[in-house]
Amino acid sequence: MKSFDVVQVRKDFPILQEKVNGKPLIYFDNGASSQKPQRVIDRVSAYYEHEHSNVHRGVHFLSNQATLAYEAARARIAAFLNASSPQEIIFTKGTTDAINTVAFSFGETMHPGDEILITGMEHHSNIVPWQMLCERRGCILKVLPVLENGTLDISKLDHLLSEKTKLVSVVHVSNSLGTVNPVKEIIVKAHGMGAKVLLDAAQSVQHLPVDVQNLDCDFLAFGGHKIFAPTGIGVLYGKKELMESLPPYQGGGDMIEHVTFEKTTYNTLPLKFEAGTPNICGVLALAEAIDYLSSIDPLGAFRHEKELGSYLRDSMREIPKIRFIGEAPDTCSTLSFLIGDLHPFDVGTLLDQQGIAVRTGHHCTQPLMEQFKIPGTVRASLAFYNTREEIDEFVKALQRSIQILS
Ligand SMILES: Cc1ncc(COP(=O)(O)O)c(C=O)c1O
Prior knowledge:
About 40% of the residues lie in helices and about 15% in strands. With about 400 residues, the protein is an alpha/beta fold. It folds into 2 domains: about 5-30 and about 295-405, Aspartate Aminotransferase, domain 1 (Alpha-Beta Complex); about 40-295, Aspartate Aminotransferase, domain 2 (3-Layer(aba) Sandwich). The strands form 5 sheets. Strands 4-10-9-8-7-5-6 form a 7-stranded mixed β-sheet, with helices on both faces. It has a 4-stranded antiparallel β-sheet with strand order 13-14-17-16, covered by helices on one side. It has a two-stranded antiparallel ribbon with strand order 1-2. α3 packs across α10 (about 280-295) and α12 (about 345-355) crosses α14. Bound molecules: pyridoxal-5'-phosphate (PLP).
């Protein structure tokens, strides 16, 4: 493995050579979705050109090959997360689908009065499935508050956890604030009360080493498209014994052992949770993206991102009337901000005219925006293929936008 080299790495991403509105693209919207290296794009084409067939079904050559590749990808992803077995890896459509799988399956074990604890900085996909579960089963949703600096108010954790808490579901890295949450501490405390823990790792697996055995989380969810793979593929990690004890989420082909009109018995893990034809190509492309990440010195890439994040924050301090939303001591390279009373949408539109892609709005965290009493933010979210030069251009473009809008 070579040491991380951003100039080389940028050549792997064809889209980074594109122009937008006549300007070289500066892509700072990686929190919404990241770009794809040529290797991943080629993997998709190769699959459909030479390898496509359904998995787990046929006796013919192509079906066997597709099944072998699909299961090898599962083992690759298990190794990436340091899961103890590939059986602990369930393929889903994405983070949202993985969280809903837990809400419906683990949710079946919950009773009226049982509690679910989330935090004030969750994405809607880690709020709404629990509200729906509470409605279905008479459970209670509790929320660990967020402090003004964008960190969790951990001092309230002991008070909120009780023997009624059956699940703690928490975002590892906040998509709106960039805060890296102290999830290990939360997991230890939750386990101390007998609760299971789900980590929403949608914004962490692409920025930090994530080791599920070391963290000791019970479930973990992430999607492929933020980690350089296509959309429509995601992962639910679940501890084997726990997953074995849970009912399936959906019924259909592949998740069964034997079906009669009177009764159906279910397949073993992981297929018990994969009803219907899966996103085979997406799975192979996700494994390819993870192989790619491993090949570019991931720790070097993560270090580069962190330095870029600090450089971005420092460079923006000189902008008059800048307000950072979230100033946690431990953040990933995601920065949310407002400038005076300029509307985020206007700032984002002017940046777009200068070739710069950022996200504006509430970032699917409306309760968090309400807490800060703001309609939304401008969010710059970086990846390892971004550079200091792009940040310099971004700050200049921002200053030009402010002049136009003021
Ligand atoms: C923290 C977090 N959780 C969940 C999601 C939902 O991911 P998806 O829409 O890919 O399912 C996102 C996407 O932005 C996210 O940032």
